[in-house]
Amino acid sequence: VTAPETRAFEADVSKLLHMMVHSVYSDRDVFLRELISNAADACEKLRYEAISNPALLGDDPQARISLTLDKEAGTLVIEDNGIGMTAADMAETLGTIARSGTKAFMDKLAADKDGEGQQLIGQFGVGFYSAFMVAGKVEVVSRRAGEADAATWSSDGLGTYTIAPADPEAAPARGTRVTLHLLDDAKTYAERYTVERIVKAQSGHVPVPIFLHEAGSADEPRQVADGIALWTRAKSDISEDDYADFYRSVAGQFDKPALTLHYRAEGRHEYSVLTFIPETKPFDLFDPDRKGRIKLYVRRVFITDEAEILPRYLRFVRGLVDSADLALNMSREMIQDSPVLSAIQKGVSNRILSELAKLAASDPERYAAIWENFGPVIKEGLYEDYERRDQLLGLARFKSTTSNGTWRSLKDYMGSLKENQTAIYYATGNDLDRIAQSPQIEGFKARGIEVLLLPDQVDSFWTTMGVDYEGKPFKSVTQGAADLSLIPLAEGSSSAAAPSEEASSFIAFAKDALADHVSDVRISDRLTSSAVCIVAAENAMDLQLEKMLASAGR
Ligand code: ADP
Ligand code: MG
């Protein structure tokens, strides 16, 4: 730009901003975490680009974030010496909704009928625009590393923003300065006490040091976060709170980790791993791209979060891997194809699964809470990851006709097999209670045979893949003539009587009348109190799967 230009925000941004401006959300502190994390990201991007172009660092190689408070002016300034933005970068990233998280937030908001959008802000962390929760005006002055020109972006958050050339003298030599003109009811964010507290609580573990300075004070800026990568510290020096804070900043989550895994792999390949399983479902869990969010570092330099270190069915795991053997000057594409990365992918995936198995054995309740959230995702692995299928079946938990709402493992199931039972029986559907009531399982109940109740979409897929467990195949109760006659009825139950003459003539009549619609009509051992039920033919598609495919237009 050569002259100031005022532009309208993208429609979605306007909606989001409206929400921020009118926010009555109580935990406004999160805006600072968002801005600090952007500043830290910018420093990490520079560090990465400087590997191939060291000149970008100039005479200022040490990454830094500084916060300047001005009580008189009512401003809070967040400045970094990271990668910076050109005017074009600003128009692209600060006028649109670039990040998928924010998109997901908007979708959620659109679907939100009960006006709980305010709560959603806290769950999502909505990035840069959250500044408008506390500021009536936001100014961004930035200079992209290696560029001569600097630019200014400013907005009051009411529909338009302005981009203009910035005075090169007054702009940062490199990086970005964000100035928040605080709202009257947000002046506390110009106070040292408040800001220091928030930084320590939310951003104490970003990998860039943070300094705090008060305008008009003769004191040296004080360091409020040391910027030392948490994962490089000894486990014994890290508290649970440290891990939780780090988790929130690395994962962009606001909850706590349900499981933390921190270790160093040594031997053929050396790398550190710090990963977390969230306590609640991340909003992007069922995004169509099914992308993972594990960050890849090479000797403390952030490289990419697109390395797909874990299989997609573990995409809920957050955190990072820091490799000591990958070459820093490898391109991201070369890293993707490197054998070192494959070894890391394999090692970390196996370790996470084995940690889950350990937890399942040592603390079934905590494990059940994880399964409750992520079981439907992990089960995708049953059809995607043939090699680890047995391991995954070991981790799987199910509700069943005999479990009274508790989770059962397949091992539990095997322990309650009836004499002559040749298969693991299951019933699929959309709703647990409805499945439990379905007439197809009456005959099983009457014989005390446990039937797994599978309410998730994914269940209709993996069950058709010829899966077996310890030699017993999975068999849908809707498929074929379940051979129940060999298994005696439980005491006190009655089944349909042996075919009487009346029954036989009814069957002949029904076959005739329904000839165009069904392939067979027969007396069934499945039913005890219902008169009829529809089943799929042996080897035919499971009914639930058939319904799903039909509704998907197949
Ligand atoms: P996210 O950080 O998830 O991408 P944000 O809304 O927080 O989403 O930021 C949007 C984009 O604005 C960033 O991706 C980045 O490109 C740009 N940006 C924001 N702050 C900075 C900064 N301090 N330095 C460089 N770029 C920035
Ligand atoms: Mg951000």
UniProtKB/TrEMBL annotation:
InterPro entries according to UniProt: HATPase_C_sf, HATPase_dom, Heat_shock_protein_90_CS, HSP90_C, Hsp90_fam, Hsp90_N, Ribosomal_Su5_D2-typ_SF
Binding-site residues for ATP, renumbered to this chain: 34, 38, 80, 85, 100-101, 123-128, 176, 332
Acetylation among keywords: no
Pfam families with a match to the protein in the record: HATPase_c_3 (PF13589), HSP90 (PF00183)
Gene3D superfamilies: 3.30.230.80, 3.40.50.11260, Heat shock protein 90, C-terminal domain, Histidine kinase-like ATPase, C-terminal domain
SMART domains, sorted: HATPase_c
Histidine kinase/HSP90-like ATPase domain mapped to chain residues: 27-186
Domain of life: Bacteria
Summary of subunit composition and partner proteins: Homodimer.
Function: Molecular chaperone. Has ATPase activity.
Entry's family note: Belongs to the heat shock protein 90 family.
Protein name, as recorded: Chaperone protein HtpG
Lineage of the species this protein comes from: Bacteria, Pseudomonadati, Pseudomonadota, Alphaproteobacteria, Sphingomonadales
